[in-house]
Amino acid sequence: MNYVEVYFSALWGIWQNSGFVGMTWRPVAMIVVAFVLLYLAIKKGFEPLLLLPIAFGCLLANLPLSGILEGVTENNIHGGFLYWIKLGIDHEIYPIIIFMGIGALTDFGPLLANPVTFLLGASAQLGVFVAVIGAMLCGFTIQEAAGIGIIGGADGPTAIYLCSKVAPQILGAVAVAAYSYMSLVPLIQPPVIRLMTSKADRAIRMDQLRPVSKLERILFPILSTILCGLILPPCVPLVGMLMFGNLLRESGCVERLSLATQNEILNMTTIFLGISVGSTMAGETFLQIDTVLIIGLGFVAFGASTVGGLALGQALKIMSGGKINPVIGSAGVSAVPMAARVVQRVVQKENPGNFLLMHAMGPNVAGVIGTAVAAGSMLTLLTR
Hints:
Layout: H1 3-16, H2 19-22, H3 25-42, H4 48-61, H5 81-85, H6 87-90, H7 93-105, H8 109-113, H9 117-123, H10 126-137, H11 142-149, H12 156-166, H13 171-183, H14 185-196, H15 199-202, H16 214-231, H17 236-251, H18 255-279, H19 283-286, H20 289-319, H21 338-350, H22 357-383
Helix pairs in contact: 3-4, 4-18, 7-12, 7-17, 7-18, 9-20, 9-22, 10-11, 10-20, 11-12, 12-13, 12-22, 13-20, 14-20, 14-21, 16-17, 17-18, 21-22
């Protein structure tokens, strides 16, 4: 064999082992999806902190023959990079750490200053149960329906946590739907708000919130953890770490830990969580009719949750004699703080001097707790 034959034989060997040979229409389609998600994250700013890592994880998972997703076998005792990174989802590590970071970033003061907004956070879980029923009618199992329904809470980490425990086979579709609708809050919620409230409703001013003492702020995370843990033990990992993060913030004696939780720990975990979620979007498993149904049911869930919060907001407006602006009920979904900001923008269009951001933060953070409790309820029923 001469040098020319050796050269072309080497080229042929490279071609035979390249990803082009293993490429089919499914990974090509998912790479296109990855580009769309990257565009939405980078150009449109739709939840970029998670959408960008998810998109790149999707891209990595759909490059054939890379071995990046390969598990540990007799022939490969090391496994691929994404196989090990994804263990953080498989063992529910990332969502729980994310909740700790959210707790450290969250001010529960508006909720404590106006406890009635707890009810708004609870009513905004309506979409969770509407979607569960809808999913079962579409032929999904009760476990899959629970994973789909939690999309209505607009809380990505909770959706991932619950789905990884009861229906890991649909985790990719559920995670993408949850984070997509979280990022689309500014587009989805305003039309629903205008449909369910009048101009007079949206113009209602609310009294200034009372100051919340440091003792209240410290006792709240401790007592909430105990109460939720005793009533619904499965919600302890989520609620407990959310409240632990908040206690770091409010105690005032561990500033270094609080700042690390808010920044380095949360940022690093967010990267790994996003890439891990994207790695579940391999074309062979993601491109199914069930994925379309899940995304559609997620939209129904999110819309129904917004309606539930607004409906109770209207009831509280009547019971309070017009002192509560019903629009803050839409912030009961747990897309913090985006849903609260949407409330502020909507009411200021009717009354530029109306400032309801802090009032809306009450139901908004209540929604975080409400979604975690809803997930705990489902785990209690499905794993007993």
